[in-house]
Structures are given as C-alpha cells and as structure tokens.
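Reviewers asked in the last cycle whether our approach scales beyond single polypeptides. To address this, we selected a multi-component target totalling 608 residues and predicted its structure end to end. The input consisted of the following lines:
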Amino acid sequence: MKYKFLPHTGDIKFRAFGSTLREVFENSVLATVEVLSKKEKIKTVKVKKSKIDGKDNESLLYNLLEEVIYLLDAENFIVSKAKIKLNETSKHADVEFYGDDSKKYKDLDSIKAVTYNEMFVKSLGKNKLVAQVVLDV
Amino acid sequence: MELKKISKNIYEIPKQGNMNVPARIFASEKLIESIKQDKTLQQAINVAQLPGVLNASFALSDAHQGYGFPIGGVAAFDMEKGIISPGGVGYDINCGVRLLKTNLTKKDILENQDKIADAMFRKIPSGIGRGSKFQLTKDELKKILEGGSKYMVKKGYGIESDYLHTEEEGCMKNANSSNVSERAMKRGIGQLGTLGSGNHFLEVQYVDEIFDEEKAKRFGLKKNQITILIHCGSRGLGHQVASDYIKKMEEKYGIKNLPDRELVNAPIKSQLGKDYISAMSAAMNFAFANRQLITHWVREELKYFFPKSKIEVVYDVCHNIAKFEEYIIDGKKKIVCVHRKGATRSFGKGRKEIPLAYREIGQPVIIPGSMGTSSYVLIGTKKAEEISFGSTVHGAGRIKSRASALKILNSEEIGKKLESRGIKIRTGSMKSLSEEAPEVYKDVDEVVKVVDELGISKKVAKLKPLIVVKG
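The resulting structure, written as structure tokens, was:
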C-alpha cells in the first residue's frame, strides 16, 4: 500500500508508506494529488523542478507538499507525481514534479495548507517507514 | 479528563497540570456529546496552556477538532505576557460572511430561479485550478492588501455603505504588504473574486422568520425579502501567510515547550509577532476585497434580471482573525488580543467598533448554516463581552469527516433532495457535494439555540436558501 486516508472531522488525514524516506515522500505527494484531483487521472505532460529544504523530516515533508499546493494556485500546474532526489543528512530534496495544465481539468479541489497537526515521519522497523499528514481543506 | 457542568449550556475543564486557565465549553447536553467525540476538548486544554491566556480557553457550541486551536475556539491574551499564534487564527485568514439585503421578494426569484442560478454560477467562480477572470498587477494587489474593500469601492467596485457596514470598515489599518511573501502574493494575485472550495458558497435566500421585529427593522430585514450570503476568505494568499509565519515562528522560538506543533507562536510585542499581525491584516484586507468584488458582480448580475434592484450590505463579519479589543477584566479596562478561530465577534450596543447605523442596538452577527439549511442573523450583546470576549459561534460545525461523508452519502441523492425542497444548486464539483451535505454538520438550529439561551448573541431572523452556488 502506498498510502491510506484516515477519518478526521474537518480535514483530510493520510498515512503514506515506503521502504525508504524518499518513497514515503513520493507517496505523500501521490496522496495529496488524489485530494486535489478528486481521483481523476492527471496526465504527465510537463515537468517542473524545485529545490526543497527542511530543518527535520517533518518540515521537509511539509515544504514538499506545500509546493504541490503552491504550483496549483500560483502556476495553474496540477501535479501527477514527483521524483525526488533526497539528501537525508542535509534535509535537502531536488524534486521533479510531473503534471499538467490545471485549466484542462474541470473538477479539481483546493487544499488550503499542509499542517503540522498530528504530523509524524517515523520508522516502523527495518525498511518500513510511515508519514502522517493532516491537510487543511 | 474532568468535565464539569457549571450551569445550563456551560461546561468547564478545571485548571490542572500545565493549564494557566480553565477550558470552558458552551454547549447543550446534545452538542457536548458530539464535541466529546473528537479532539476538541484536548485542543481547548492545549490552548489553556499558552502564555498570557486570560480567563479561560473557550470552545463554542459549534466547536469541532481543528489543528492547534479547535474550530469554534476563542482565547484572549495579555498584551505584555501574551502571544499571537497563526494557528489560533487559522489558515483561511478572514474567512467570513457578508450578508446583502435587496428590494426583491421571494416571488421575484422564484419566477426565474433556474436562470438566476445559472447566471450566478457563471459569474462567481470557485477559481480552483483556473483562477479569477479579474486580472491584477502586483502594484494593485499591494494596494488591495493595504486598502481592503475600502480601496475596491474607491476603484468603483461598490458604494460607501458597503465598507462602512463591514467589520473594521473593510480595512485593517495596520496592514503592511511588505510583510507578505512573494509566494503568498503569487498564490493570491489570480484569485480575487473567487469563492474557493470546501464549505465556501454564495446563497440567494429569503427571510423565512423574524424573531425580533424591531431589530430586524433596524437591520433592514422583513419576511420574504431576498438576501444574499457570501461565504469566502483570503484564498491562497491568506493560506500562505499562515504557513510562512508558522515556519518563521518555529525557527525563531522552537516547538519544544508546545503541547501541539500547530500552536507555535510569538510574543505579541516581538518583532516577529508584529510582522505576522501586519501580514495577517493584509490577508484580512484581501478577503474583504474578495467579498467586495463578489458583491459587485452580484449587483451586476441582478441588475440584468431586475433593472430596479437595489442591493446593500447588511454586515460583513470575520470568522478567522486575531484583533485587539478592550474589555473589563477584574474591574479594569484592558486591551487584549482576541483570537477567534471559527468564531464571530458579537459586540453589544455602544461599542465604537460598530457602524453608526447599528451602534445603538448592537452588531449584526451572521451565522451561515450548512449547505441547504437555514442561516441566522443575530445581534451582539453585552453578555458576550462579559463572558466570551465578545464572541459567538460562526456556523453549524462539522460532526462527520469528509471521507465518511463520501462513504455514506451519494452526491446525486443530495442534489435531488435539495431540489425537492425547492433549492437550486449549482456546483463545479458534484463529487464534493456530499462532503458538505447537511448530515455531516451539527444542527445549526441547536447551535444557535445555545448561544441565544446563553445570551452571547440573540436571534433576529432566520434565512432559507433558494439558490446555492457552491465553491
């Protein structure tokens, strides 16, 4: 399983899984995209490159997902997936966001913000990591 | 945790552990049960632990779990020892509602209900993924950030009484656009005049019931009159301001001593605190301007159907803000910093903040219901100033998650149900209709009954929708 959604009264909460931190982050992007696209398939026709930094794993994840929201609001770019090159020590990520012109899609949702509420990134054992995120919608 | 019933509609969690003050919950027996179901009470306890918090941390009858503060949460802070917290304002800075009154009656709308619904839907976009048709230069955006709806009126998008009948006269004077990041401006520049998604909407309604004839008359409301309710906020610009300052405060003050990372804050009088306040105020102005431009478009559209239509603002209130207000605390007048996160200011008569037209009777309080249900007009009271830092509820408040709503309710059925009650619904997203169905919210009638009984705002009129345009 790449990610799953959990119950939350007002907002959207998900957990993303992976065998590496990079995978957990890429799957967190996919979960966020599922919210924005309302499960409609987003084509991969364009790519945008970003450099993302964080102080710790949580803030790096926060900033990564915030970029997905920013691209939709500011550049009318809807992300389909992300390819991440991660430096786990310096908490730096070189990201290629793939996606399409959002104006081509009629029924998208918006996310107000990523939140730190109940957020964690942790190891569940050998080669098993999980991140939890609550999105304010 | 210990939850004591103090009196009818008032519960309290006594001060314990790291709490500086008790947590007080205004709810009926029925509503307190739903409030217990999520993390609302724990979040109210967390807020009670913040430095400089005064009297109590409040959760109102519409409260539900938020992030950091509960939604439906109110807390006031001492100016010297207290803090300002972006999480106590929320990401949608100055999400709020504006109520318009018209010289039209229910009959006028019913004759053209579908056509008017279509026209409103075309004119007022949600703006998701495509932005607004209203183009701005960066220079103009900065002027809007500092001038709010007052600036929009000056530019020809409204009349003087529009901003006079708005909280803060539609312009936070301490706004400073240079404290708003490039990133926030880029998110907002294409979004002025858009509703956004989620629970935001525009409704064409009629006055269904009057509870207080005299006050209703002063607000200019009578039975079967058409009103229009606009519910939206500061869009991506405000969301980004909140995110930016949460990060800055984390860097500067850390998160070690916080019960919840989302409660990150800065002392009110610190440079970062002041910077946030001026940026938040700029985002508030963006939201005021947003509701102003939508008002202008509503006028244009209704003029087409009814050349003699006259549309005026009853009042425009903020739901997500922090403001400096004066209260009597321990017998002394004192200015405090009130955070309202999903709460409405509810000032009684005489306050200088109330527009002249209403100053002798009290401020109009506008409570939107959930999609397709009733909305209420109430009036602010002295009692609110005494017991809830001049605050009352802001809406129905959720009880079920969006995810569970999608599982139990079918959008098509909800659409049909609304149609069968004579409500025309227009939305770009049938998929999200079920997320906002009345069934996932508390009963607004019950929520309003509690604040009316407590006297922190009193019922004036009840409004029912004829047309819903959902963001």
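Residues 15 and 132 of chain A are 4 Å apart (CA to CA). We regard this as preliminary and will revisit it once experimental data from Aim 1 are available.
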